[in-house]
Specification:
226 residues; mainly beta; six-stranded antiparallel beta sheet; four-stranded antiparallel beta sheet
Length: 226
């Protein structure tokens, strides 16, 4: 009797680097990216009085998901940071997002309910929750003076965090990675905010599944990427 063929399973570690961001403010409190210190970052305006800073990248999967007809299961998405967050503005918010379809952030970041951003996976977004591999929000404050008038501070303090995403298997030809930053008010802050250099590390498994199931994943990815 012929031996049954075992499905192909290939574990891998996927990584992507996100550069540091530095933002300063002028005498009117208007923030801007510090020239030469934040490669790949850009600013999006239009969300009320706040400025949003965005970095976008991707990991190419085509050689595995398309050319070898394998699907991808992601075990975890870890954002590993090489330094601390520095915040002298009134607040700092950092979103980290991994998706299997692209997002037009120039449009998406202007969607809101009057107060909060409408991020992928939530009501009124153009992207469904099953397309979100990992989403994470962290909020920081600049801390408080521990010695009045002496300029001694506790430093940047994490206040709140939340995560979302369902991490379903995918046959997309790319994973899309984004970091979004917005800051509170403050005049003549140099810096107002510095975010650390970061590596996104994802232990994954490329696996073989029935042809129809894989083709359906490919079809859904193709439609959503249009």
């Amino acid at each position: 009797m012929a031996k049954k063929k075992e499905p192909k399973v290939m574990p891998r570690i996927l990584t992507k680097s996100i550069p540091s961001l530095r933002v300063d403010t002028d005498g009117s409190g208007i923030p801007s990216i510090t020239t030469g210190t934040s490669p790949g970052w850009r600013e999006i305006t239009g969300f009320g009085s706040q400025a949003l800073f965005v970095w976008e990248g991707y990991i190419d999967l085509q050689g595995m998901t398309v050319e070898q007809d394998l699907s991808l299961g992601i075990q975890a998405a870890e954002f590993q940071e090489g330094f601390i967050h520095i915040c002298t503005a009134t607040s700092l918010l950092v979103w980290d997002i991994v998706m299997d379809v692209p997002v037009n952030w120039d449009e998406a970041l202007l969607l809101n309910d009057g107060t909060n951003l409408t991020l992928p996976g939530f009501a009124h977004s153009s992207r469904n929750i099953e397309n979100v591999i990992e989403g994470k929000l962290r909020m920081y404050s600049p801390g408080i003076e521990t010695s009045a008038g002496a300029g001694v501070s506790e430093g940047t303090i994490p206040i709140q965090s939340t995560r979302w995403g369902v991490n379903v298997a995918t046959a997309s030809d790319r994973l899309y990675i984004s970091r979004i930053v917005t800051i509170g008010t403050g005049n003549n802050l140099t810096p107002a905010v510095i975010t650390p250099p970061t590596v996104v590390a994802m232990p994954v498994v490329f696996f073989e599944e029935p042809e129809l199931a894989h083709m359906e994943r490919l079809r859904r990815s193709y439609i959503l990427q249009q």
